[in-house]
Amino acid sequence: MSQPLLHPVSTGFEVAPWRLSGVVYGALLNHAAQLAALGAAAEQPPYKGAPRAPVLQVRPRNTLCGPGSVVGVPGAVEVGASLGIVIGRTACRVAVDEAEGVVAGYLVAAELSLPSDSHYRPAVRLKARDGFTVLGPVVPAAEVEDPDALALQVVVNGQARLQACTGGRVRGVAQLIADVTEFMTLSPGDVLLLGAETPAPQAQAGDQITLGLEGLGALSFSLAPEAAAAVATKGELRADDGTELHPRGPRARVAYDGAVHEATPHQQGLRLADGRVLREDQVQWLPPFEVGTILALGLNYADHLKELSKELTITTKDEPLVFLKGPGALVGHRGHTRRPAGVAFMHYECELAVVIGKTARHVAAKDAMDHVAGYTVCNDYAIRDYLENWYRPNLRVKNRDGATALGPWFVPAADVADPHALALRTTVNGQLTQQGTTANMVNDIPALIEYLSGFMTLQAGDVILTGTPEGVVNVNEGDEVVCEIDGIGRLVNTLVGDAAFGR
Question: Which residues is 27 bridged to in the sheet?
Answer without folding.
Answer: 56
